[in-house]
Amino acid sequence: MKRESTEASQNICRARRIAGTILTVIAVVFTVYLSVIMIHRIYTVAQKTSYIAIFATELILCAAMIFFSYDIRTGIFSRGKSTPGKIIGWILRVLAAFLTALTLFLTGKVITGGMIHDAADAKYAVVLGLALNDGKPADDLILRLDTAKEYLDAHPDSLLVLTGGNPGNDGRTEAAVMRDLLSEKGVPDEKMNLEDKASNTVGNFRNTANIIGTDEPIALITSDYHIDRAADTARKAGFNNIARVPAKSEFLLYGANVMWEVVADILAVFI
């Protein structure tokens, strides 16, 4: 009986080591992947402050996931020899577990939110901008504009509201860049209204409300990873009839963009 108990205990320890090793490797690789993308973005966008704040918070969450995974593998937080050491270890264990669970929960919320595609026939389609890279549109912004063009082709009586300030190195705003790209796709100027003053999503919707009011239904066009938080922000700005029209996003950057949304959701609670 004792031998069987010992073997079971050894199997559990072995399973923990394997699971902990796999999770630790995943967490470390994701942290490196995220860091490469975010450092590149910080160097290419005009407005760097918010990017640095987001990146710092992302690193905290990544560190929590790494420590939690490593604790699964080694039980490092329970190795304190003194009572205070054990208490501190358990506090760190609980904190790491909480931050990991929160990150995974919000990640699921962002991903599933991006899968919702509502049937829309709104007079106004609000297209959210995206920070320019050295003054040039990111691939995800171009994909948003492709979706906006498809929406306008399907609903020719609708009007586009292109949102986004944050001028690039050449002084052109996100909204102006979007207008120029849509013009190249054959969209006439009278089909486009510009909101080119705001520096974030909250400002986008506040200014859009001043342009079109909040009583009209709107079709909300933005990237799939961003649409859940954008819809929440629109409701807070007074828009109560919102149809989600998510645009596809670049595959290789999807994980980093989801993490951005997770951090933005967390920061929104405290700021």
Structural topology:
Elements: H1 2-44, H2 49-74, H3 83-113, E1 124-128, H4 139-154, E2 159-163, H5 174-184, E3 192-195, H6 201-212, E4 218-223, H7 227-236, E5 242-247, H8 254-270
Parallel strand pairs: 1-2, 1-4, 2-3, 4-5
Helix pairs in contact: 1-2, 2-3, 2-8, 3-8
Task: Describe the 3D structure.
There is one protein chain. The chain is about 60% helix and about 10% strand. With about 270 residues, the protein is α/β, with parallel strands linked by helices. It folds into two domains: about 1-115, no CATH class; about 125-250, HUPs (Rossmann fold), CATH 3.40.50.620. It has a five-stranded parallel β-sheet. The mean pLDDT is about 90.
Helices and strands: which structural class?
alpha/beta
State the CATH superfamily name of the largest domain: HUPs
**Average pLDDT, all residues:** 90
The count of β-strands is 5
Supply Rg: 23 Å
| Distance between the first and last residues' Cα | 57 Å
Query: Biggest β-sheet: count, sense, barrel?
Result: 5 strands, parallel
CATH class of the largest domain: Alpha Beta
Helix and strand succession?
Answer: HHHEHEHEHEHEH
Q: How many helix segments?
A: 8
**Name given to the CATH architecture of the largest domain:** 3-Layer(aba) Sandwich
